[in-house]
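Possible regression after last week's pipeline update?

I re-ran a chain I had predicted before the update to compare outputs. Posting the input and the new output here so someone can diff against the archived version. Not blocking, just want to make sure nothing changed silently.
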Amino acid sequence: MRDRLDARTRDWVREIRVFESALSTNDILKEAARQGAPEGVVAIASVQTAGRGRHGRSWVSPPGNLFLSILLRPEDPAILSLLPLAAGVAVAEALGVEGVDPRLKWPNDVLVSGRKLAGILAEASTGASGVESVVVGIGANVNLQRTDAPEDLREAVTSLREETGRTHDVDAVAAAVLVRWTAWYDALRVDRRRVRSAWRERSVDWWGRPVEMETGGRRLVGVPRDIDDAGALIVEMADGSRLAVVSGEAREIRPTSS
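New output (post-update):
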């Protein structure tokens, strides 16, 4: 894996740490950050034994899929909440080259036909001066077969292999993600609105339809209208007021047949 990846990522100027097996690539880089590692260090594992998504949920991590994390030390705190959106655009573009049409679901899911293809987990570490580092983790189902997933998730997930009927080169996908991430991270530091617009263009088509949200320990129902410049989901409530949801989860409310 090391040699193949090196050949595909010659333009990546930072260190890439490759592991055959790791508990979590995010945890590897959080420890590296504590030890003073610079921005741009990458960790990639062939297998994760304790991969996780948001809210501590486990992430299915068998071989043949992408488990990648990037260490960041952003100087502008205004871009912190937009990092998952920028990563989502980068991942969607990279996976799109493989023959699928990914859509982005706020705040961190990459979907195809309503099923989860990839996810993003951004974890910040703070110190006396504020946020000192952020690790952006990316997990993508490249060659996952649904039978590899827990039974209760099989209808909710998909992979490049499931969608295209062929196996895919994980190293090529990793290299494409890093190339696209470089472009969108640069864009984020120069023009945050460009990232917002790109994310919106690739978003799932749920605008104007009711969603249920869990945020700050509350469960709310509203209609998503837009994403603001800080990456918050703008939701119209039943009384006509608008709420900026900074973090949480949202799912579309679909009518049930009688």
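Follow-up from reviewer: compared with the archived run. The two ends are 52 Å apart (CA to CA). Marking as no regression found.
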